[in-house]
């Protein structure tokens, strides 16, 4: 819950505007701010105060307990000039929220947390991204990063890291600090200048005799660290055959290891049918085990199967083959990190219509690929050290290929497009080339059809079709056949790419086809440069609409036979009138 607190009429107006953008999690809290804040404090993830900063400080100060659990606090002045992150900058998310609030209210974000105020990627954020345990002085290393000291980063498994400042990298000479991202134990550092981040990459497979003692299970698993150098805090889950789902010794050992190595978090025991494990190729099968339980391997096969489940289709490897204890076997498999490809829709233009998830992914990326004019719109969100790969109009296939290639190199890549990346944009050409060798993240955006619909009224209130009139990739004969089908089906039609200097007749022809199945008064709406400075919105009956007013940055919406202009707005009924007639 994001609580919004205001006492003046101007503050309440700003809070209402912000709540509309933040969505259902944002609540304008009623009543005097002091009692109201105390009433909801334990339920808050964040709070925004439309008050003087001093007043906000006095309200929250008695309630603050711990920066790791307190909500993020943001303060906005009466004139809406500044959005100030007062408390909970990193842990509470106040820094990111201040930037989002500033975007919506056209204010200036004020962030005083050291690493964020300089734009550096804070190490505690890196820890969160990797879901990693920490060995070493995180704060001390963070200060070194901020001060511009040389910091070497060692990433032997190849995790796709976010952008890092110039003083941090794999080739830094004479580092003051070394940051190691690995799931293996390292030799103690005598000078204390190494910071180790331990991601949870391992799944441990366990097999046992019936009635095995928990101590034997624990001791055998401990050998993964002692003899093979694996850090037990890297264990994400345990796995076994389903016949062992109620094996007390295994269950108790898993519970013990969760307490000691996972900060008290409960580690899962994944179990699988013997027939499923029998189909997994392993280096050390046993016919004795096959005769007893129906699979030639439990520990190795279960480790690989559990890692595959956790990897969600990504690559896995067996890093420790079966080791034997007294009545128990154990093996370890690793979830291999993959390069990351985020396909990010940045919306139709206005900053407040770009989603918070899109902002987060742009900060997460080490390289951003996109059309040059789109990069210009979001460059202020990039971390220092973010690499840009820009290209011009008409290079969509090349941009997609470059983004996929960079992700295959193990990079954290954001491929951006206007509107929604999956609607006539970059997602299709990218995913046509990407396989499971890269991690895919889709970030939806407000596409042109939705932005135009909201400005026109409610033209998409019933069944509708989106059709591109560009014949650069689709023959006109195919496009015309689709327009005819939409006309005969009485669908509302939203046209993308309706007209350009070289393609000037297609929109007129498409309107002729639709007019054959529409009343003469059917409204046609058009939106040019939706949500941008030179936005224009207009409507006309289908027989009077002039295609010559339309350009490449216009979205055209043609109503169905049921669409009408009501109160100056284009509306397509949901169909309830038909339901009433049927009764």
Automatic annotation (TrEMBL):
Domain Cobalamin synthesis G N-terminal: 37-116
InterPro entries registered for this protein in UniProt: 4pyrrol_Mease (IPR000878), 4pyrrol_Methylase_sf (IPR035996), 4pyrrole_Mease_sub1 (IPR014777), 4pyrrole_Mease_sub2 (IPR014776), CbiG_N (IPR021744), Cbl_synth_CobJ/CibH_dom (IPR006363), CobE/GbiG_C (IPR002750), CobE/GbiG_C_sf (IPR036518)
Domain of life, per lineage: Bacteria
Its EC number(s): 2.1.1.131
Ranges of residues in domain Tetrapyrrole methylase: 340-545
Pathway annotation from the record: Cofactor biosynthesis; adenosylcobalamin biosynthesis
Keyword line: Cobalamin biosynthesis, Methyltransferase, S-adenosyl-L-methionine, Transferase
GO biological process, one term: methylation
GO molecular function, one term: precorrin-3B C17-methyltransferase activity
Pfam annotation, one family: CbiG_C
PANTHER family linked to this entry: COBALT-FACTOR III C(17)-METHYLTRANSFERASE-RELATED
Name this protein carries in UniProt: Precorrin-3B C(17)-methyltransferase
Organism whose genome encodes this protein: Saccharopolyspora cebuensis
